[in-house]
Amino acid sequence: MQRVKKIGEGILLGATVLLLFLSVFYDKIQLPVALKVVGHMHPLLLHFPIVLLLIAFVIVWIPGNYVSEQFFKLVLFLAAITAVFTALMGIFLSLETVAEGSTLTWHKWGGILLALVGFVFYHGYEWLAEHNVRFKSFTIFGAILLIVTSDFGGNLTHGENFVFAPLKSNIKKQVRFEDAIVFNDIVKPIFESKCISCHGPNSQKGGLNLVDSLSIVKGGKSGHLYVSGDPVNSLLLKRFHLPTDDKKHMPPISKPQLSNDEIALLTAWIKNGAKYAVKVADLPAKDSLRILAAKYLSTSIAIENIQYDFSAASESTIKSLNNNYRVLEQQGIGSPAIAVLFYGRSKYEPKSLSELSKINEQIVSLSLSHMPVKDNEISTINDFDNLEKLNLNYTDITNDGISELKNLEKIKEISLSGTAITINAVQHLATFPSLQKIILWDTKIDTNQIASLQKKYKNIVFQTGYVDDGSSSIELSPPILESPDGIFDEELMIKMKHPLKGAVLRYSLNGTPPDSLTGLIYTAPFAIKSNAKLIARAFKKGWIGSMPIKAAYIRRGFKADEVELLSPPDAKYTGSGNLLIDADLGDINFGGGKWLGYMNNPAIVRFNFKKEVILSNAMINVLKLTGSYIFPPVLLEVWGGSDKNKLKLLGKITPPTPLKNEAGTIEPLQVDFPATSVRTIKIVAKPIAVLPKWHEGKGQKGWAFLSEVLFN
After folding, report:
1. 562-711 topology per CATH
2. Is 319 a residue whose pLDDT tops 60?
3. What is residue 298's predicted lDDT score, i.e. its pLDDT?
C-alpha cells in the first residue's frame, strides 16, 4: 500500500512539474496529434476535481472527527491529481483551439493555480492544519478560485456570464420602430444571442470579436467577415449556410442555430451595405432590410409598452386581414395596439383600406407609403380614432384629400414626402391638437414657406429633406426601382425615379454598368419583352455618382399546368413541385423555402401541359454558392414528348465546374433543342458527386439547388 502511495505521489509531482513547464513555454509548444485527443477529454474530467475539492473544503469546516484522516488524505490526493491532469488537458485543448480573449486566459491560469492549490492542500495538509484560521482561510480562497475559474469555463462553453446569468435581469431593451438603429437594435442582438459566446470580448475564436462595429469590420484570422453589398461572397453567410455537420459551420451544431428570419436579416443588412448608424425608419419603404427589421422589432423586441384604454381585436379578425400585401403588427406583447403596413403598389385596392374598419379602434400606425391612394379614399382614415402615426409618402393624394382628414385627435406624426400637397394642406393639418411632426421631403413647399410654418406653429417639427445649394460634393443615393425583379409574362413596364430633383438616371439592360457618359438615359417608363439584366445609377453635376442598383428580369414563356417530383429533394430543402413554376425566383438565402435541394440523388422533375405546346428551350435557374457546397449540376438533361411514358432526349448540357473563389450567383442554365411539340417535359439535374480538390470539402458530395424552370 505504501508503494502505491509513493507511485501516486510521484505521478502527482511529475504532472505538476510538467504543468509548470508547459505554462512557462506555452507559446513555443507544438502539440502532437495524440495529445489533441487527450485535450478533448478536458470537459469529461473537470467535474471530478471540482466535486473532490469542494468535498475536501467542506470537511475542514465540519466540527469533530466525523471523517477519518486516512479518508481525508485519499480525497485530497484524488482532488490534487485530477486537478493537475484536468489543467494539463485544458492546456492541450487551448493549444488546439483558435479561441482568443481574456476569458480563455483567465480560465487557463485559474485552472493552473487551482491545480497548485490541490497540490499544496495534499502535501501541506499537516502544516495548514496546525492553525485553524490558516486552514479555513485556505479553503475559502480555494473555493472562491474554484467558482471563478468555473465561471470563466462556463462562459467559454455556454456563453457570457453563464453561472451568474440568473442573477441578472433578462428583460430586453424596449425600442420604438422610429428610434431603432439598424446595427444596435437589429444586427447586434442577433450576434449577442447566437454568436457572442464564441466571438465576444472575452472569447474570440478565430480572432473574431463581434461586440462592436470596429471589431466586426476588422474581421478575424480567416479574413473580413463580409463583403459590403455582396452577401453571396461574405464569409459570415457562407459559414451559416454550410452543412450543420461541417466543422466550420457556425454556430456549432451544439449551440442554438440562427433562424431563417435572422439569416435573412443579416443577408439584407450586408446587401444594403452593412450600415451601422442608419435608422430603420430612414430606409426606403420597399427596402427588404426595413421590412424584415419591422417584423423583427415587433416579434423579438417589445415596442414601447404603452398602456391603451381600448380592447384588443380578436385573433380571427387579425388573421383574416393579414396577408402578404397588408401586414398587421401587434405593438408589443399583450398590447391591443396594431400597426398596419401596405406593400405592393400593383396589389393595392381601395377596399384594402376600407376593410380595416373592422379594427378601426386598434390601429395606432398606418403606412400607405408608395400606394396609389386617391383623395376620395382618405375619409376612411377618419374612423381610426386612436391613430397616432400616418405615412402617406409618395401617394397620389392632393390638398383635396388632406382636407378630408378630420377628427384625428391623437395623431402625432404625418409623413407627406413626394406628394403634390401645398402649404394650404399643411396649415390644415397643423390645427390637429396632438400633432408633433410633419415630414415634407420632396414636395412643392419651399424653404421660405417652411420657415413661416415653423414660426407660426412652434409646437410642430417640420422635417424637410436635403436642399441642393450647388456646393455639395457627396455621393448620390441609388435610383429607386419601382418594378421588382423576377419572373414576368408577356411584357413588363420598368419604372425608376430619384428623390433628388435634377438627377439623371442612366441604365443598361445587358449587365454592363453605366457611367456618367454611357448607358441609356431614363426619361419615362419603358417596356421589356425579353430577359434583361438591369443596372442603373444616378448622376448629377457636382455630385458623386450613386452606387448601382441591379435587377434581373426573366420572361416566363409557357407555364406548366402540373409538376411532379419523381425524385425526392433533401428533407431540409423540400417543398412542392409548384416552387419551380410559381414565378418567385429564389435568392441566395437558400434556406428561405424557395429552393429544392438535392445531394444524394439526381433531381428528376416532370412538367405536364394540358395542351400540346411547341418548345425550343428550357431554362433551369440553379444556385452557385461554392462556400456552402452548392454547385451547378454536372449534367442537365431535358426529355420531352406527347406521352409521358414515351419521352425522348431533347437536349443536354454539362455546365463547367466553378473555379476557386468564383462569386456566388443565381445561374439561369438554358438547354436548347429543336422546336418540338410536347405535352410533357422531364428535367434531370445531377448534383456533383465529388467536390473538387481546391474545395475545403474536397472528396465530399455537393448540393444542386433548383428554383424556377421556364419554357420557351
Report:
1. Jelly Rolls (2.60.120)
2. yes
3. 62
What backbone torsions phi and psi does residue 454 show, to the nearest 5 degrees? -65, -35
* Residue-averaged pLDDT of the chain: 80
- φ, ψ of residue 322 to 5 degrees: the values are -85, 130
**CA gap 499, 507 in Å, rounded:** 17
Using an 8 Å Cβ cutoff, are 397 and 414 in contact? no
Evaluate whether 705 touches 629 at the Cβ level (below 8 Å). no
Cell of 335: 398590447
- What percent of the residues of the chain are helix, what percent strand, and what percent coil, each to the nearest 5? 35, 20, 40
Q: Which residue has the cell 446595427?
A: 183
pLDDT at 224: 79
Using an 8 Å Cβ cutoff, are 540 and 500 in contact? yes
Place of cell 485535450: 39
CB 205 within 8 A of CB 97: yes
Domain 305-463 and domain 562-711 have a common topology: no
Is 60 exceeded by the pLDDT of residue 172? Answer: no
Grid coordinates representing 83 are 486537478
How confident is the model over 500-536, as pLDDT tens digits? 888 999 999 988 889 888 889 999 999 998 888 899 9
* 253: its cell numbers: 451544431
Report d(CA 651, CA 181) in Å as an integer. 52
**Buried-exposed string 286-300: b where 16+ CB fall within 10 A, e elsewhere:** bbbbbbbbbbbbbeb
Handedness of CA 299, 301, 303, 306 (dihedral sign): positive
**Angle formed at CA 417 by CA 269 and CA 293, multiple of 5 degrees:** 25
C-alpha cell at 268: 439584407
Between 3.30.360.10, 3.30.1060.10, 3.80.10.10, 3.40.30.10, what CATH number should domain 305-463 receive?
3.80.10.10
Domain-by-domain residue ranges, the chain? 2-166, 177-271, 305-463, 480-555, 562-711
What is the Cα 615 distance to its own chain's centre? 40
Q: 550-595, pLDDT tens digit by residue?
A: 888 888 888 899 999 999 998 888 888 888 988 877 777 777 678 8
Cis peptide before 687 (omega within 30 of 0): no
Cell of 392: 402617406
User: Residue 529 CA to chain centroid, in angstroms?
Assistant: 35
The Cα 429–Cα 327 span in angstroms is: 27
Segment among 239-243, 300-304, 384-388, 658-662 with least mean pLDDT: 300-304
The span from the CA of 22 to the CA of 56, in Å, is 27
Classify burial at 136, counting beta carbons within 10 Å of its beta carbon; exposed 0-12, middle 13-18, buried 19 or more. Answer: middle
Q: Tell me how long the chain is.
A: 712
DSSP result, 495-534: -EE-SSTTPEEEEESBSPPP-SSSSEEP-S-EEE-S-EEE
Residue 551's region, left for phi above 0, alpha for psi from -120 to 50, else beta, is beta
